[in-house]
Amino acid sequence: MQNLDLVAFLVKELAAGPTRKFAQLRRYFPQARQNEWTLIPAGQRAQLVRPDPTRIGILQQGTELVVSADGSISGLLGASPGASTAVPIMLDLLKRAFPTQWHNAWKTVLSEAIPDRDRTDWDAEAVARTLADTDAPLGLDRVGG
C-alpha cells in the first residue's frame, strides 16, 4: 500500500508485450528493426520487502548480501548484480563468511590483485590511472580514450 507507484510500475513491466518491450529497446538503439531482433525472456527483477517498525514494509530495489552469524551460509537477495557490483559483493562475502582467512591472507593478496579495492575518492586522475594500470594486463586497447 505504501509503495503503490513502484508496484504499479513493476506490474506494467511484467505485463508488457513484445511491442512495448521493443519500444524500450529503441529508446537506447533508435536504428533497431524489429525483424532483426529476437526477444529472449530472462526473468523479472526481484524486489526485497524489508521489515519496518512504522510501516507494513519497505519495498527496496538493489541487492543485499545476507551472511549467517557463523558464516556457514550466505545468500544474495534482490536483483542480480551487474558488473559494477559483482566484485564488491564477492569481496564483502569473503570478508564476512571467512573472517579468519580474510584477515590472515586473503586481504593482502586481494589488495595486490585489486589495488584500488578500498578507494572512495574517484576523481578523473584516479580513474585514468586505474584504466592505464588495467588496460595492459587485460589486453584492452583504449583507442580514442
- Classification by helices and strands: mainly alpha
Largest sheet: 2 strands, antiparallel
> Which assembly state applies to the chains in this document?
single chain
Element pattern in H and E: HHEEEEHHH
Rg, nearest Å: 21 Å
Number of helical regions: 5
Shape: flat
Low-confidence stretches: none
Residue fraction in strands: 5-15%
- Mean pLDDT equals 82
Q: Give the termini distance in whole angstroms.
A: 48 Å
How many β-strands, per DSSP?
A: 4
Helix content: 40-55%
User: What strand line-up does the widest sheet have?
Assistant: 1-2
Describe the structure.
With 145 residues, this protein is mainly alpha-helical. It has a domain at 1-61. It has 5 helices and 4 strands, in the order ααββββααα. It has helices spanning 4-15, 18-28, 83-97, 99-113, 124-138; strands at residues 48-50, 58-60, 63-67, 74-78. The strands form 2 sheets. It has a two-stranded antiparallel sheet with strand order 1-2. A two-stranded antiparallel sheet has the order 3-4. The longest helix has 15 residues, at 83-97. The chain starts with a helix and ends in a 7-residue tail after the last helix. The model has no long low-confidence stretch (mean pLDDT 82).
